[in-house]
């Protein structure tokens, strides 16, 4: 795709066709759509790998979907996708290839960046990680006092934390339960304190995860962890290499920090931070679940990569999910998207998706730097069902906003629950199905009246319905299924960025806050003058210093 010559999105005939269609469709009713088409759920479902996607409860018709696909064709989604898979530098503001798909390519695949096949490098690192993971799991890798490692603490933030932390929770039943895993990200000292306060330094391994190895939170926490370790082990610096390894693209900074590059697991600038957890950034997860399970996870990713790359538009799940998001965000004025997993193990899944989606598509200029005249990425939010049902679902059902939602569930509870707890699974899943049903079809005033409800109460007890959901089901939450799910969302985000003509792979929006925090630190800590500081910030800093007793 030649991005430079692209017509403005909202001036494309395909965009206008969708706007007109939306107008014509008006307040389409999901009840009506289901009543007139008994095969709707079958026609509006897709099976991809181990995932079953039901998108029948969306405010769409065949015509809507066709028009959305026309928009995808006109905006060159397939061309940009192919360019990504080929290793072209589609991250234009950073002049980088975007090749997280190469991280899960099979050993014999060829993916070139600047004429070099990167797949052998990927597998060399995976092999090195596997050797290390095995030696920690088996007790061969020992700490400086000869004791085996029993605690693994990952120190990283953003993409160097959320992926492994989320996947560790998601795959807990597959983890080595004799090891303890902790994830430290916040520069609030309380995070590290709580993570290590009950650990024995002689048995603790720190994994310092940072693509750049310059991120202030991570470097600060890693230095404090080093102090904690040395305090606990008598102060001999020779202990450090036994207890610290690094995951990074930046060997020079790793060395400067004092970690032997022998103990560094590498990745590359063509892996975006939020797309990195299947790179060396996944080391803590690999130690937790073992190299074989980690490879199953990668295979799951790869399966959906191949689907996205090859499936026709009508049956391409990431394309479809991306376009449905565009339908609501751009033609129904939806501002947010809820992800509601009916699995306790997916407690961090939405937090992970927040970075993936909001850091990728929270942009307001197009790829050429022009302001966009259309809505871009949604606010992504949600927590596991059924907890959310007793908190914010009220707004989903009876509020004034359009909030498309994904309902995720699994047919089988994990084996180790035992029969009694496993029996609760039917109730959990009944809730998932019921919510999809209630959101879609609601309850009419007539139905409420028919129950004998007093007239003054009828409006309060009526549910308008027509709230769109996608239901994603799988047999079980395995490493492969987790990989499939994440790749599905990664490519969905890609599709939306391609249509909106934004660079989904940079994140300049995080820079200003970093710069200002650095500038303010001397004022906060030592009371230094910051020239030109606004009165609000100056007063807040003064109040802070006074309350801090400075
Ligand atoms: O603050 C944004 C960000 O750059 C993310 O994109 C990234 O995942 C995170 O910080 C951590 O960066 P690093 O891995 O370089 O420490």
UniProtKB/TrEMBL annotation:
InterPro entries: G6P_Isomerase (IPR001672), G6P_Isomerase_C (IPR023096), Phosphoglucose_isomerase_CS (IPR018189), SIS_dom_sf (IPR046348), SIS_PGI_1 (IPR035476), SIS_PGI_2 (IPR035482)
EC number(s) stated in the UniProt entry for this protein: 5.3.1.9
Pathway(s) annotated for this protein in UniProt: Carbohydrate biosynthesis; gluconeogenesis; Carbohydrate degradation; glycolysis; D-glyceraldehyde 3-phosphate and glycerone phosphate from D-glucose: step 2/4
Gene3D superfamilies: 1.10.1390.10, Glucose-6-phosphate isomerase like protein, domain 1 (3.40.50.10490)
Alphabetical UniProt keywords: Cytoplasm, Gluconeogenesis, Glycolysis, Isomerase
Residues the record marks as active site: 359 (proton donor), 390, 514
SUPFAM superfamilies found in the cross-reference section: SIS domain
Localization, UniProt: Cytoplasm
Catalytic activity: alpha-D-glucose 6-phosphate = beta-D-fructose 6-phosphate
GO molecular function: glucose-6-phosphate isomerase activity
Function: Catalyzes the reversible isomerization of glucose-6-phosphate to fructose-6-phosphate.
Family per similarity comment: Belongs to the GPI family.
PANTHER family per record: GLUCOSE-6-PHOSPHATE ISOMERASE (PTHR11469)
Protein name: Glucose-6-phosphate isomerase
Species of the source: Streptomyces pathocidini
Gene that this sequence comes from: pgi
